[in-house]
């Protein structure tokens, strides 16, 4: 029998590490309280799947995610992926910002081995906790040869998603995560790991982890908005703004006027869509002076913000080169 793959689990907290005094409740609990050693001990089947090692990188509720933890997590991924006999890395995470952490890693990690994020919608003490199976499935995927070269992956509810595509689409259901554009990449059912397709953007044009993080914020377009938020952010020194626009990137005329002033002040402006799916049309020519702003393509506002953050951190002058920045959004 061949030796089991060596898999490293990096734990960051979240609901998967949550606990409650009432097992019947899956809504009232304290996130990020159970150590990773306890999570692993609750899944004895792991011993027949992989040689698992664990590191408690953090213990946070993911709603409170911060850039410094992303930097630490990237460093730990780089450290463990450089170990010659590590076959894959699993990251346990909270669901609230999982898609953002996954996107950050997609943008900044070359992934010589599979990097798989997993989480849970119910705490570990729940009568029907989903964390143990999600963890087992994630380890299976991380150690599977077909997972190599697929970029950062997310495994939840027996489905395998691309980090770039996945999003949380329900407040509480165990099948809360979806990939609106192309669906899951594959599935896990007991020992069977099936990756049916390769993501269109399996490996991003890897950008460096920022040493300094520019201020990039999200605003929304809706009926009769004011320009107070845009003006205040520009005055505060924001470097980028992502608009959660209506429909196909449509922005209210009041906001267009405010955003033109923001662009004139050197702020990069990107249109995404608040609809949750679809592709925002890319203009033939980006002309902020005429109110024609960058398109986030099919990235949701939160992932578009991340790309803009990392891109401006690498090259602050990109705000003055909108066509180059647009090409980056079209390619990642």
What keywords describe this structure?
single chain, 332 residues, alpha/beta, Rossmann fold, 2 domains, four-stranded parallel β-sheet, 14 strands
Explain this structure to me?
With 332 residues, this protein is of the alpha/beta class. Helix 3 runs parallel beside helix 7. The strands form three sheets. The chain has an eight-stranded mixed sheet with strand order 2-1-3-4-5-6-9-10. The chain has a four-stranded parallel sheet with strand order 11-12-13-14, sandwiched between helices. A two-stranded antiparallel ribbon has the order 7-8. It folds into two domains: 6-195, 3-Layer(aba) Sandwich (Rossmann fold); 216-331, Rossmann fold. Helix content is 27%, strand content 20%. The chain has eight helices and 14 strands. It starts with 5 loop residues before the first strand and ends with a helix.
What's the CATH first level of the largest domain?
Answer: Alpha Beta
Order of helices and strands: EHEHEHEHEEEEEEEHEHEEHH
Strand tally: 14
What is the terminal separation in angstroms? 41 Å
- Main beta sheet: strand number and arrangement? 8 strands, mixed
Number of helical segments?
A: 8
> What class would the helix/strand composition place it in?
alpha/beta
Give unreliable regions as ranges.
Answer: none
Taking all residues together, what is the mean pLDDT? 94
Helix content: 25-40%
Pfam family, one: Asparaginase
Domain Asparaginase/glutaminase C-terminal: 215-316
Enzyme class: hydrolase
Domain L-asparaginase N-terminal: 6-199
């Amino acid at each position: 029998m061949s030796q089991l793959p060596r898999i490293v689990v990096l734990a960051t907290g979240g609901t998967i590490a949550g606990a409650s005094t009432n097992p019947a409740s899956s809504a009232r609990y304290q996130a990020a309280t159970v150590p990773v050693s306890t999570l692993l001990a609750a899944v004895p089947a792991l011993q027949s799947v992989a040689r698992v090692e664990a590191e408690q990188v953090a213990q946070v509720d993911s709603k409170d995610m911060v850039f410094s933890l992303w930097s630490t997590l990237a460093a730990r991924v780089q450290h463990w992926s450089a170990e010659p006999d590590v076959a894959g890395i699993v990251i346990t995470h909270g669901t609230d910002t999982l898609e953002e952490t996954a996107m950050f890693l997609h943008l900044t990690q070359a992934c010589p081995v599979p990097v798989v994020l997993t989480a849970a919608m119910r705490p570990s003490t729940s009568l029907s906790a989903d964390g143990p199976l999600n963890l087992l499935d994630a380890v299976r995927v991380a150690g599977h040869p077909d997972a190599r070269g697929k970029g950062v992956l997310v495994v939840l509810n027996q489905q395998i998603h691309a980090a770039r595509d996945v999003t949380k689409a329900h407040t509480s259901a165990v099948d809360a995560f979806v990939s609106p554009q192309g669906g899951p990449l594959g599935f896990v059912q007991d020992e069977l790991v099936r990756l049916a397709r390769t993501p269109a953007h399996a490996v991003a044009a890897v950008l460096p982890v920022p040493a300094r993080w520019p201020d990039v914020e999200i605003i929304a377009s809706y009926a009769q908005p004011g320009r107070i938020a845009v003006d205040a952010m520009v005055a505060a020194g924001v470097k980028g703004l992502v608009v959660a626009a209506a429909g196909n990137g449509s922005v209210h005329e009041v906001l267009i006027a405010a955003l033109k002033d923001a662009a004139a002040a050197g702020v990069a402006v990107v249109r995404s869509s608040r609809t949750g799916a679809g592709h925002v049309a890319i203009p033939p020519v980006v002309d902020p002076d005429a109110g024609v702003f960058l398109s986030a393509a099919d990235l949701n506002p939160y992932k578009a913000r991340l790309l803009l953050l990392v891109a401006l951190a690498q090259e602050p002058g990109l705000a003055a080169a909108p066509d180059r920045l647009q090409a980056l959004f079209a390619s990642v």
